[in-house]
Design brief:
Helix content: over 70%
Pfam family, one: KIP1
Largest sheet: none
Order of helices and strands: HHHHHHHHHHHHHHH
InterPro entries: NAB (IPR011684), NET_actin-binding_domain (IPR051861)
Distance between the termini: 51 Å
Structural class: mainly alpha
Organism: Hibiscus syriacus (Rose of Sharon)
Family: Belongs to the NET family.
Radius of gyration: 61 Å
Number of strands: 0
Protein name: Protein NETWORKED 1D
């Protein structure tokens, strides 16, 4: 890993690793360069350390800042030592040149412009990126001792001490009287040759250093060209990024339109689903009515069967035992009354079931209302989501504007750099012209000595100006780093936009899946409609057949009633005949007894029987008459038997009708099976509804994620705005310094014109130049004060950032409190769910009690069957109907329980949505309170009131933004 980092650092800082020049002539320069190399490596190592978060980077910045400041101070000391050494060397060379010109006026040329201080300044230019300006006071004794030691070594190496002593003696004794002080020309020539040799050596060394500086200058120019290329590439990349952002915004708009369309289709599908549910409820209601009618018909048919059987038994047993028939008829009537009571109980239960069904229908209507409210809430959530998307687009526009401002700042920085280069060139030209003027006025030695001192002061001031230029370059580098951070943030925002695009694609796919499901549901609903049509037709045909059967049953009842009346009449006639026959038998017996008595009396009297022949004949006639009467009675009995046969035929027809009724019952059972299938389908639809609710929850969670992303983007935008504000402040400082440099260049031009035009008034011009230098010092002090004020503003901005962090922590604490409130609400909801479960258990117990009652009723029916063996078939049919009713009750209770569960779930969802709305509303009102906005407007609708508060908060934020922009413009203009 260390080798990889070393290779990366070599690739990143190639401008430093490729800029080493090994000087062979100067050992001091070589030592200074090695020391500089070590310090630069340390600085690169500090800069290369990276962190994962902004907070970590800030900590590293504040921790490593003192070390970086130390290294910068050491760089400045080294640069200053080099500058002082160079200044001293140029002064010594100038003095040597003067002495040579005085000694050999004909041999030595008067102009010495190549080794001038202006040229040295321009040659030292390439090293400027490696020597940052001072930021604190220099007060370390070790470094000062090193600088003094280095200056001593330089003087020993160049042997300038003798020349200085000679120059001082020449200046003290006077330059023009050389013949008095020099004894002979040979000594003078030898001394001059020695000095010339020393000067030549020094010139060779300086030329070598000059070549090294030129090479470094060329390398710095190449680096600047590379940087300009990189900047142009970065601009092109930013343009491409802007185009991609515009494309992404267009895609987001298209996706929004698609989402709106899909939501409209989804609402239409929901309406269709509700219509289908209503149709299913109507079908269930019709089926229940049909079942009730079929039950009534079955009851009537069973009653008719019982009555027919009773009549059969009565007719068969009329001749034998009338009393037994009457008693059995009484028993049958009692059993019928008992059965009627059971039927009345069953009807009461059916009424209860209908009441429960009505309650379930009312609950369904309430649930439908709840679903409509939920859809309204969903639409409101969708509107909020669209508003969030609009805010995201606004933030993206702000980011684009910030990038444009950064590009404009970059162009301004480039213009400033170009202006700095032009100012440097002007300064170099002015310095060269000043040197030419100095060479022209070498005759005035005393005045030029004063002027040389002033020129040294000017050079020092130029060195200060050069340090200020270096400071501006460092600030330029900081601005570049800020621009890189902005590019990094822009790339992060692009990645977030891509992630949002992928999420939108996923949502589009989910919506497509929902559409396919809706199409399948529509196809199934069409199938169900077709089946319902078939069932309706079957119900209509069954109702027609039932009506026909009812008419036939009514006609049968009428005929049965007529037959019963006739049977009663015949029974009465038969009873009367039997009584008459009984009376006749008694009379015959009486007659026989009388006849016996008579014969006995006759025999006793001794009379003949022939006398009684006539009487016997009369008796026989009477007997014949009685026989005729008996035959008539027999004929009547035969007619009654024929009528009974007709009744049997009617009974057979009734059996046929019963078979048809059983077939209808089978058809009804098939219809019930289809109804069960429809109920299962409804359950599946309810399951899909729950999945849709889950999808709604996911959409709400995605909205929360989108709000969090918006908060992150707003934080990043705040950071970018702060960085842009700092960059603007730095650019303003650059502009002020550029204006100062231009003013100084203009002043130097004025000085040049004054030196050319006014050669006689040098003293007065020197006074003017001193005044100008004092003005420059004042301006420099003003610039220092501005720099201090800028640092104070920077500290204030850091303080504001800390306050914002504190406010963020407070908001986090509020968020935790909201989470705790939500947890408490969840606990309360769990308690409510437990209470509902307890109620469900109670209802289950009641249901079990009702089942026990039903079982007891079945036991009573079984006892009644034993009591009434003749009515066993009717009891069986009643028991079957009871079982069917029980199954229907079980199904209805299951449906009611499922509806109650769905109702509880929807109430839970409504409560959670209401809690979220209240939380958002409280946050909105807190924002309005912090912004001092009146939230009470007297609206009846809370949504309108919330919308008005949102509009006011947005307007207040826009006003604050505009006021901040105006303040910033005022500050920038000032």
């Amino acid at each position: 890993m260390t080798t990889v980092k070393h290779s990366d650092s070599i690739g990143m800082y190639s401008w430093w690793w490729n800029s080493h020049i090994s000087p062979k002539n100067s050992k001091w320069l070589q030592e200074n360069l090695t020391d500089m190399d070590i310090k630069v490596k340390q600085m690169i190592k500090l800069i290369e350390e990276d962190a994962d978060s902004f907070a970590r980077r800030a900590e590293m910045y504040y921790k490593k800042r003192p070390e970086l400041m130390k290294l910068v101070e050491e760089f400045y000391r080294a640069y200053r030592a080099m500058a002082e050494r160079y200044d001293h060397a140029t002064g010594v060379i100038r003095q040597a040149h003067r002495t040579m010109a005085e000694a050999f006026p004909n041999q030595v040329p008067p102009v010495f412009a190549d080794e001038s201080p202006g040229g040295s300044v321009t040659e030292v230019d390439p090293c400027s990126p490696l020597t940052p300006p001072p930021l604190h006071g220099l007060s370390e004794p070790d470094e000062l001792q090193k600088d003094a030691f280095a200056e001593g070594r330089a003087r020993k190496s160049l042997n300038f001490d003798d020349t200085e002593e000679k120059e001082q003696s020449v200046q003290n004794n006077g330059g023009p009287d050389l013949s008095d002080e020099v004894p002979s020309e040979s000594e003078r020539v030898s001394k001059a040759e020695v000095e010339i040799s020393n000067l030549k050596n020094a010139l060779t060394r300086l030329e070598a250093e000059k070549e090294a500086g030129l090479l470094e200058y060329q390398q710095s120019l190449e680096r600047l060209s590379n940087l300009e290329r990189e900047v142009s590439r970065a601009q092109e990349d930013s343009q491409g990024v802007n185009e991609r952002a515009s494309q992404a915004e267009a895609e987001v708009l298209t996706l929004k339109d698609a989402l709106a369309k899909l939501e409209a289709e989804r609402e239409a599908n929901i309406d269709r689903y509700q219509q289908c549910l209503e149709k299913i409820n109507n079908l269930e209601y019709n089926i229940t009515h049909a079942l009730k009618d079929a039950g009534e018909l079955n009851e009537r048919a069973t009653k008719a069967e019982i009555e027919v059987k009773a009549l059969k038994k009565d007719l068969i047993k009329v001749e034998a035992e009338k009393k037994d028939a009457l008693t059995r008829y009484k028993q049958c009537t009692e059993t019928i009354s008992n059965l009627e009571q059971t039927l009345s109980n069953a009807e009461e239960r059916a009424r209860k079931m209908t009441e429960r069904a009505e309650k379930a229908e009312t609950e369904l209507e309430t649930l439908k209302l709840v679903v409509l409210e939920l859809t309204k809430d969903k639409e409101a959530a969708a509107l909020q989501y669209q508003q969030y998307l609009e805010t995201i687009s606004r933030l993206e526009n702000k980011l684009a504007r910030a990038q444009e401002e950064a590009q404009s700042l970059h162009s301004e920085i480039d213009n400033g750099a170009a202006k700095l280069k032009g100012a440097e060139e002007r300064c170099s030209l002015l310095e060269r012209t000043n040197q030419s003027l100095h060479t022209e006025f070498e005759s005035l030695v005393q005045k030029m000595g004063d002027q040389s001192q002033e020129l040294t002061e000017k050079q020092k001031e130029l060195g200060r100006l050069w340090t200020s230029i270096q400071e501006e370059r460092l600030r330029f580098m900081e601005a570049e780093t800020a621009f890189h951070t902005l590019q990094h943030l822009h790339s992060q925002s692009q990645e977030e936009l891509r992630s949002l695009a992928t999420e939108l694609q996923n949502r589009a796919q989910n919506l497509q899946d929902i559409e396919t499901r809706n199409h399948s549901l529509e196809a199934e609903l069409q199938r169900v409609k077709d089946e319902n049509k078939g069932l309706n037709e079957l119900n209509i045909s069954s109702a027609m057949s039932i009506e026909n059967l009812q008419g036939e049953i009514l006609s049968l009842r009428v005929t049965i009633a007529k037959l019963e009346a006739e049977v009663e009449l015949r029974v009465d006639q038969r009873n009367a005949l039997q009584q008459e026959i009984y009376c006749l038998k008694q009379e015959l017996n009486d007659f026989n007894k009388r006849y016996r008595d008579m014969t006995g009396q006759l025999e006793f009297v001794g009379l003949n029987l022939e006398n009684f022949a006539s009487s016997v004949m009369e008796l026989q006639d009477e007997n014949r008459k009685l026989k005729d009467i008996c035959e008539r009675d027999r004929d009547e009995k035969l007619a009654l038997l024929e009528k009974l046969k007709i009744m049997e035929k009617l009974i057979e027809k009734n059996t046929l009708f019963e078979n048809s009724l059983s077939d209808m019952n089978v058809e009804l059972e098939s219809v019930r099976g289809r109804v069960k299938i429809l109920e299962e389908y409804c359950r599946s639809l309810l399951g899909e509804k729950s999945t849709l609710a889950a999808e709604k929850d996911t959409v709400i969670s995605q909205l929360k994620i989108a709000t969090e992303n918006l908060e992150k983007l707003s934080e990043k935008n705040n950071f970018l705005e702060n960085s842009l504000f700092d960059a603007n402040a730095k650019l303003k400082g650059f502009g002020v310094k550029l204006t100062n440099l231009e003013n100084s260049c203009l002043l130097l031009g004025d000085e040049k014109s004054g030196l050319i035009t006014q050669t006689d008034g040098l003293i007065s011009q020197l006074d003017v130049s001193r005044k100008k230098f004092e003005d420059l010092e004042k301006r420099y002090q003003g610039l220092e004060e501005k720099y201090l004020s800028l640092e104070k503003e920077r500290e204030s901005t850091f303080f504001e950032v800390e306050e914002l962090q504190k406010s963020l922590e407070a908001e986090k604490a509020e968020h935790t409190s909201f989470v705790q409130l939500n947890e408490t609400r969840v606990t309360t909801m769990e308690s409510q769910i437990h209470f509902l479960q307890v109620e469900n258990l109670c209802r289950k117990k009641e249901y079990e009690e009702e089942l026990d009652k039903a079982m007891s009723a079945q036991v009573e029916n079984f006892i009644l069957r034993k009591c009434a063996q003749d009515l066993e078939e009717k009891n069986l049919s009643l028991s079957l109907q009871c079982w069917k009713l029980l199954e229907a009750t079980i199904l209805s209770e299951k449906l009611s329980s499922e509806l109650e569960l769905a109702n509880s779930k929807k109430q839970m969802e409504m409560k959670s949505l209401f809690d979220q709305i209240t939380i958002l509303r409280t946050g909105l009102y807190q924002m309005s309170r912090t912004l001092e906005i009146d939230a009470t407007h007297g609206y009846d609708d809370m949504s309108k009131q919330d919308q008005s508060v949102l509009d006011r908060v947005y307007g207040r934020l826009r006003d604050m933004q505009n006021s901040l922009l105006t303040l910033w413009m005022k500050i920038s203009s000032s």
